Amino acid sequence: MREPITRRKFVKKSAVAGAVLAASAGRVFLVASRVLAASIDPAASRKFGASLKGRLVLPGDSEYESARTLWNTRHDKHPAMIARCAATDDVVRCVEFARKNDLVVAIRSGGHDPAGFSSCDGGLVIDLGAMDAIDVDHARGLASVQAGVHVGQLYSALGKHGLVAVSGSCPTVGVGGLTAGGGEGWICSKYGMACDNVLAAEVVTADGRVLRATSNVNPDLFWAIRGGSGNFGVVTRFGLRTIPLARVMKGSIVYPVSRCREVLRFCSEFIAVAPEELTLGISYGVPGPADQIFITICWCGDPAQGERAIKPLRSFAKPVSDDIRVVPADRGLIDSDDSSMPYFESGAFISHLADRDIETLCDAISGAPSRYSLEMFQLGRGVERGDSAFPLRTPGFNIDLVGSWRSAAERDAAAAWVDQRRKALEASSTGVYVNSLGDPGMARAAFGANYDRLVQLKNKYDPTNFFRMNQNIRPTVLGAQ
Ligand SMILES: Cc1cc2nc3c(=O)[nH]c(=O)nc-3n(C[C@H](O)[C@H](O)[C@H](O)COP(=O)(O)OP(=O)(O)OC[C@H]3O[C@@H](n4cnc5c(N)ncnc54)[C@H](O)[C@@H]3O)c2cc1C
Question: How many whole angstroms from 390 Cα to the centroid of ligand 1?
């Protein structure tokens, strides 16, 4: 199967450049974070480290550099300590220690946050990467999944049982961050977002309690953690609904980029009437031919019906190529893996593309440098049925713009490309996907109509704003940071 071109794909080329840019500034911060780490009572630090089942990584340790590196290498932060947690108890110890020592905390599962919120300068990173157990309970149609599990691990563990869960499409993204922010993936038109398929969660709250959250137990917390993106506590474990699905139809119909307007216009009309079994993405980017635009589809129903359903996508113009075929579901739901890079990312959610949006998007990609990408992911009618803090509840396209650079000189142009296009789409946009935001301070836009309810829940569960490395919902009670 030919690889679709997505933002997940174009990262390799820029990785080295990002590392070089980061290195010199890094030395200054390393000294600063060593000072900060030293300013925490060394005996208390040692005791804290020894209390963990996992490992405490400090500046100067041989693993510190790799432990602090984020996927988006634009963010070059130097935490005072990184706790590589091995169990829920470790997370509780972290919350207690950070509180006592007045340290800012960052929550990390897979480290792919575009805004770099999963690290911090001078604080404590609660790293769940080593908490990666998956237990499948066939009888209850449930998988108990620790938050540090990667999307690829999830699909391959469930695939052995002929099952899938709703999750993302990049194998190295963390289930923790993806699900906490919403989680779009290749079957979400039928089944909703990843967060809509969480049946239970274990959460460590700002006061160090371990709470269970379900639709019956702490239902308000359960609502908030599914879309509230790290504002309400550290989710250590998710109970995910499993779905029996052995095979999907997956692949891309490729058109010349000169047909961009037709592709966008046709797909916008098409998704409004397409069956829920179909989830569709449109993408443009590198590496790959700059003269092509991809319509990638995933069909999770009967293949014969799928063939009939996608026929119009193959015939409204003359495709360059088409590699759609039936594949095992655990393979079909993921795209290829990549490595990290420095980039700006932003986006918009649009239910129906107006002509001016089509112009903006086609103009964006015509002549764009090969290291920029546009990705439009369909959220189908499945999202209408969910009830959680994830706010994008009308079908449409989540549009992602990513601008990367190879040298500092290209950085401003990449930022401007993303920002200008985002602004141009604003008039039609009814929201933004929190997991696509590369800049801080966008909580109101990200949580939309749910923002005020989330503030009330923040007042209840995190009144001092202990968890603030995120699109931050500021509590309105006294004493908040
Ligand atoms: C290459 C690439 C591909 C992507 N593909 C998809 C995709 O297919 N679908 C999709 O929906 N998104 C996708 N994303 C966006 C992705 O969902 C977000 O970047 C998400 O935040 C990543 O989760 P993480 O655990 O890897 O990130 P992290 O950086 O570890 O976490 C991001 C934030 O999520 C919160 N968080 C993380 N873990 C927890 C936890 N255990 N409890 C509470 N809060 C937590 C914190 O606020 C944290 O700052 C992609 C991103 C990249 C870079």
Answer: 14
